[in-house]
Specification:
The protein has 169 residues and is an alpha+beta fold. The chain has one domain: Hotdog Thioesterase (Thiol Ester Dehydrase, Chain A, Roll), CATH 3.10.129.10. The protein is built from 3 helices and 7 strands, in the order ββαβββββαα. A hairpin with a 6-residue loop joins β5 and β6. The protein binds coenzyme A. The site of coenzyme A has 18 residues, from β3, β6 and α2.
Length: 169
């Protein structure tokens, strides 16, 4: 299976925050942002695997800053590492300044997707090749995030989480 570069998995989406997506303070609902991130991350995982993908876990989401009604929001998703059937996807969320057009990062999230066959069973995905400094950093750190996610899901014994142990020892 031919490996893919992280760049090849890039998926970008731009949204405008509408009234039905906000709370009574006029700020974007966290759940709306989660759905946007899930959608664009799935596109990225699909670009990597060219298969049907399902969300296996949402590993980390930080709602750094509230996002206002009417804001122009850009989501950028890229696969950060691929394993046998699973792919970690990182999503960076930016809000655009209406006057200058300058983009400020307001959120970041990490999702894991699994490529599946017609019966919903996991299938193999290509390797991911990181190229830029940021892609390489994210690739390196992905292994401990995977282990943490699997330990929390009860799919890995803490004693087997070697990458995690190396942080705490
Ligand atoms: C995700 C799913 C396909 C995994 O299937 P499974 O039979 O449990 O398969 P396995 O335990 O062999 O795991 C398959 C892969 O998923 C990964 N995985 C499973 N749970 C995970 C988790 N919580 N975090 C990170 N990775 C996970 C495994 O590490 C494995 O990766 P690898 O093949 O790259 O090594 C299955 O649980 C599923 O269909 N879940 C529902 C998905 C869904 O509907 N999502 C939308 C939510 S509403």
């Amino acid at each position: 299976m031919k490996s893919k570069t992280a760049k090849e998995t890039l998926a970008i989406s731009t949204k405008v925050v509408l009234p039905h997506e906000t709370n009574t303070l006029g700020k974007l609902f966290g759940g709306a942002l989660l759905a946007w991130m899930d959608e664009i991350a799935a596109v990225s995982a699909h670009r990597h695997s060219k298969r049907v993908v399902v969300t296996a876990s949402i590993n980390n989401v930080s709602f750094g800053e509230p996002i206002d009604l009417g804001a122009i929001v850009t989501l950028e998703a890229k696969v950060s590492r691929a394993y046998t059937s699973s792919m970690e996807v990182m999503i960076d969320v930016f809000v655009e300044d209406r006057l200058t057009g300058e983009k400020k990062q307001v959120n970041e999230a990490i999702y894991t997707f699994v490529a599946v066959d017609q019966n919903g069973g996991p299938i193999h995905v290509p390797e991911l090749v990181p190229e830029t400094e940021q892609e390489k950093k994210r690739y390196q750190a992905a292994l401990r995030r995977r282990q943490l996610s699997l330990v929390l899901a009860g799919k890995m014994k803490p004693s087997e989480a070697t990458e995690l142990k190396s942080i705490f020892s």
